[in-house]
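Section 5: illustrative case.
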């Protein structure tokens, strides 16, 4: 055992207390897990413990003083109900949690025998948990035993490897046993193992190299490429080649503006010899209304712009328009957030107040703000300490206090409210301690806020401080996921020490660049899409097909429901008409969720309802109903074969079959058909077609039906269905 690690003999010689010695045993045995005696509010069979032991004083009271003192038996410690149940000597619904011959069982016996001390004034307190190794590189398929030590206030160090809890953040890459033995699977990349002990956490970061030679790298265009390629070289995963022009144009148009490039745009781009043409396309897309439409829809759903009543229509439209106009004008992100959080007045004069119509309860306000704008999930901390984080109830209510002075009154507009700041002391009650808590940013001390000052403005000020470790990182990670399919931290809104980024240096650099730019959203998108990393091909090479997290290639993803509907409308030439909106309105421009109920494809393909700030509400997995909809939907059939649709217009247009096929491929894929595709499609358009009675159709009718079939076939391909 290394220097500074306490021996078992020395540990045994020290008198025991509940906090340092018993609570960790209960946690390791899962006695205080949510599925056992820490079940919300009730515990299990009359015995209740705090979640993961974050309230040791309460647990001590429940064990020692409740149940008429039957849970511990000082006269015969090993006959205590606490131990008889845990060892399953007396029937126990949770089964055997402690073996009678184990060190943990003997420790509990000794503690009872010593008088069941909660904590002595002279007892050292735990100050840190350290895992060894903290960072290591291991081969795929190998194993590593972790060692954990706890540091105490008196300078002592204790080996707590047996009692610590272990969990890998990516089960597809690694698993950790109860004893801390980490077993790696075959996937290369970076994985973290969280170690938890006595309310504190530490992380072991493991790099798993593939080890392939990386002799040649694509050219780096900015710091993103330098950091992505440095990581790929370190772990030995060669990246794919840069994608071709057609793929790039289609990809970036879908990602920035939520639409397919037009046939004319595709043809012009492919003919353009200018080496800077990709940057020019990015700029054109960022200037286009399509960018604001697409991202306004994204933010409107995350900000609960949902229609529960018909009276919500006016505020929904106004709120969506406010977001869209802010994006179109490239209003700095910190200003948008400030305008939202501190909104006052009524919808007719300040549409941002519509958010407070949807999010009325302080609980939802604090949880939504933390998750959406800080990347911190605070829901657990309302009732107990966050199991994987450092945030507890005091942190929760300190953040909630910023929203304590929001006033509401009826406005001059029917069914609407006026939001205002109530003069008074900003504070809220901690439901656990019954103490008043003043506003404080996460990790900071209480703020002095005058009664006339709106505390929400102070919250916005704290958020946009350059030293804030959450605000910028949460946004750049969210946008990274939008353009690269997977966040540097995944899930994208769960930034915590125990869920580290796969490329920490890159996340830090992106956040710093975002702050330096003045929170410029367009500049962030420009930086992401100009990078070679974004422009890599989705076609894997011999080494990176199973790379899930290092961005050695572009990860294909299914088109979102709104984008898919617009793409189908574009290819078929038959736009969808939406109630109460002008003809030609795109699906990505829809202001709220009400259109999911009137348009089957949006519902089937998982357009969000705006119920959650989590992007996981959007369904992006395939289903049988989706396949059947594309194959058999009457709406889709009507689009393909309807009058004035693309097939109809192509039939009436001059030009050869080859030119019409070329037009369809440019529209659907932003590329020209291959020679084989052209030959097959031309042959199909020349085929003879019979009617239901088996009689040959008129050549014109046969050609039209074949064109319809070709369009239907193209929109049912994976190449059409995916952004790749």
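Designed sequence:
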């Amino acid at each position: 055992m290394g220097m500074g690690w306490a021996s078992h003999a020395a540990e045994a010689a020290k008198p025991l207390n509940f906090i340092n010695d018993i609570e960790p045993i209960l946690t390791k045995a899962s006695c205080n897990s949510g599925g056992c005696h820490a079940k919300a509010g009730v515990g299990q069979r009359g015995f209740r413990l705090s979640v993961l032991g974050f309230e040791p004083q309460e647990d001590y009271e429940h064990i020692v003083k409740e149940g008429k003192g039957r849970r511990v038996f000082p006269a015969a410690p090993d006959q205590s109900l606490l131990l008889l149940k845990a060892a399953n000597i007396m029937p126990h619904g949770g089964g055997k949690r402690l073996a009678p011959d184990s060190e943990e069982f003997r420790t509990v016996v000794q503690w009872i025998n010593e008088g069941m001390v909660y904590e002595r004034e002279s007892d050292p307190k735990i100050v840190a948990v350290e895992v060894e190794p903290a960072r290591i590189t291991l081969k795929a398929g190998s194993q590593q035993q972790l060692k954990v030590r706890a540091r105490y206030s008196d300078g002592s160090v204790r080996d707590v490897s047996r009692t610590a809890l272990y969990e890998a953040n990516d089960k597809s890459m690694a698993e950790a046993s109860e004893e801390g033995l980490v077993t790696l699977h075959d996937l290369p990349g970076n994985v973290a193992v969280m170690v938890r002990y006595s309310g504190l956490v530490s992380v072991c970061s493991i790099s798993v190299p593939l080890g392939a030679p990386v002799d040649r790298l694509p050219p780096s265009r900015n710091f993103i490429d330098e950091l992505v390629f440095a990581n790929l070289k370190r772990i030995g995963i060669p990246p794919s080649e840069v994608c071709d022009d057609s793929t790039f144009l289609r990809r970036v148009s879908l990602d920035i503006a939520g639409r397919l490039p037009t046939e004319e745009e595709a043809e012009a781009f492919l003919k353009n010899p200018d080496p800077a043409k990709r940057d020019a396309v990015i700029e054109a897309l960022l200037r286009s209304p399509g960018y604001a439409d697409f991202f306004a829809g994204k933010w409107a759903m995350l900000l609960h712009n949902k229609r529960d009543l018909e009276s919500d229509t006016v505020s929904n439209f106004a709120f969506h328009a406010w977001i869209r106009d802010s994006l179109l004008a490239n209003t700095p992100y910190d200003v948008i957030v400030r305008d939202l959080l501190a909104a006052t007045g009524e919808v007719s004069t300040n549409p941002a107040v519509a958010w407070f119509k949807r999010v009325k309860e302080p609980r939802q306000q604090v949880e939504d703000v933390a998750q959406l704008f800080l990347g911190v999930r605070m829901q657990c901390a309302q009732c107990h300490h966050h199991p994987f984080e450092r945030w507890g109830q005091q942190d929760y209510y300190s953040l909630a206090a910023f929203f304590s002075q929001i006033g509401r009154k009826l406005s001059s507009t029917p069914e609407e409210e006026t939001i205002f700041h109530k003069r008074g002391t900003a504070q809220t009650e901690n439901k656990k301690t019954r103490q008043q808590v003043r506003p404080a940013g996460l990790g900071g001390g209480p703020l002095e806020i005058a009664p006339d000052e709106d505390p929400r403005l102070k919250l916005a000020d704290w958020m946009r401080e350059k030293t804030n470790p959450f605000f910028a990182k949460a946004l750049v990670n969210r946008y990274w996921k939008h353009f690269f399919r997977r966040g540097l931290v995944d899930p994208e809104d769960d930034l915590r020490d125990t869920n580290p980024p796969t490329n920490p240096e890159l996340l830090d650099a992106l956040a710093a660049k975002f702050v330096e730019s003045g929170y410029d959203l367009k500049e962030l998108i420009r930086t992401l899409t100009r990078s070679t990393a974004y422009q890599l091909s989705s076609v894997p090479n011999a080494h990176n097909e199973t790379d899930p997290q290092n961005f050695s290639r572009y990860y294909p993803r299914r088109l979102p429901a709104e984008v898919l509907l617009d793409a189908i409308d574009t290819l078929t030439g038959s736009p969808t008409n939406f109630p109460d909106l002008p003809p030609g309105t795109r699906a990505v421009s829809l202001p709220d969720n009400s259109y999911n109920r009137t348009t089957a494809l949006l519902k089937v393909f998982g357009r969000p309802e705006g119920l959650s700030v989590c992007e996981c509400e959007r369904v992006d997995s395939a289903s049988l109903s989706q396949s059947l909809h594309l194959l058999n939907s009457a709406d889709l059939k009507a689009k393909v074969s309807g009058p004035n649709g693309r097939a109809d217009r192509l039939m009436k247009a001059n030009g050869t079959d080859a030119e019409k096929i070329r037009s369809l491929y440019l529209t659907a894929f932003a590329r020209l058909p291959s020679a084989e595709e052209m030959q097959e499609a031309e042959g199909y358009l020349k085929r003879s077609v019979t009617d239901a009675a088996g009689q040959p159709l008129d050549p014109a009718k046969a050609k039209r039906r074949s064109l319809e079939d070709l369009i239907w076939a193209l929109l049912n391909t994976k190449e059409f269905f995916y952004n790749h």
